[in-house]
Write a structure and sequence with these properties.
By secondary structure, this protein is mostly helical. It contains ten helices and two strands. The protein has one domain. It is globular.
């Protein structure tokens, strides 16, 4: 590979890891739109761009989540009992979601992704102070919540914290515990979703650099950079109030949602 594409992927990974550790929202929300630009630059066909971007983003969370969770665990911010209770549902949902996303036309998938980003941005901008209004559900409720989180996350190529974090905060966890637990839930999402996208895209791979829908150079270089910057994001998150950062990031997400909506229109939706 030339140096310029490698530097592009490393920069994308660095931003992804930083945001994953800082805000607990899963870097995939940022990675997917920018990865589509990179895949356009590399000459991927329009039918593959969005699916490869989502699958590669999800696979990179395998590594980003490990780095982020280690940093969160050292600070005692991971509720492992909740992670265990939700993981089975998460993995089942993630497998289902990857198959569903792979079956969608590119335009509809881009539209779904745009809607998810817009919803997340709205929630971030409206959430001035989180307060608990419900208790944690039992084992069945956590399984069901995990299943829904897995489906949504694998469809958009994210680690699920955009749903998991507010869900846990609303049920009495502190914001730092919710972020840490959400980061740990990202790993089973990534495992099951990656397997699903490999299976679904096995016959669609167009080069030796792809495994299913996963673009290996993107996975390698993004993962390397994100693993280095995720702990930095965690340190910043525990040292500073993140309200202003969340507002700025929410506005940026609106811009990315508009970009993905434009891509849906380009795909002929």
């Amino acid at each position: 590979m030339d140096l310029v594409p490698i530097l592009m992927l490393l920069l994308l990974g660095a931003c992804t890891g930083l945001l994953a550790g800082l805000l607990g929202i899963g870097g995939g929300m940022v990675m997917v739109p920018f990865m589509t630009l990179y895949l356009d630059y590399k000459g991927f066909g329009p039918d593959l761009v969005i699916k490869v971007a989502i699958a590669t983003s999800l696979a990179s969370i395998l590594f980003t989540s490990i780095s982020s969770v280690r940093a969160q665990h050292r600070r005692g911010a991971v509720r492992w009992n909740l992670v265990r209770a939700m993981s089975v549902g998460i993995m089942i949902g993630s497998l289902i979601g990857s198959q569903f996303a792979s079956s969608l036309p590119a335009g509809w998938l881009a539209l779904v992704f745009s809607a998810f980003i817009a919803v997340m941005a709205t929630r971030m901008l409206r959430q001035n102070s989180a307060s608990a209004d419900r208790v944690l559900p039992g084992a069945g409720g956590l399984f069901g919540a995990g299943s829904l989180i897995g489906v949504a996350s694998s469809v958009v190529g994210a680690g699920g914290a955009f749903i998991t974090t507010p869900f846990l905060v609303r049920r009495g966890l502190t914001i730092h515990a919710a972020v840490g637990t959400s980061a740990a839930c990202g790993f089973p999402i990534a495992v099951a979703g990656t397997v699903g996208y490999v299976i679904a895209g096995w016959s669609a791979a167009q080069s030796s650099l792809m495994v299913g829908y996963i673009y290996l150079p993107g996975l390698v270089f993004v993962s390397i950079a994100s693993m280095l910057t995720a702990p930095l994001g965690v340190r910043i998150a525990h040292a500073l109030p993140s309200g202003r950062l969340k507002r700025v990031f929410g506005l940026m997400l609106y811009a990315l949602a508009a970009y993905m909506l434009w891509r849906a229109w380009r795909f002929g939706l």
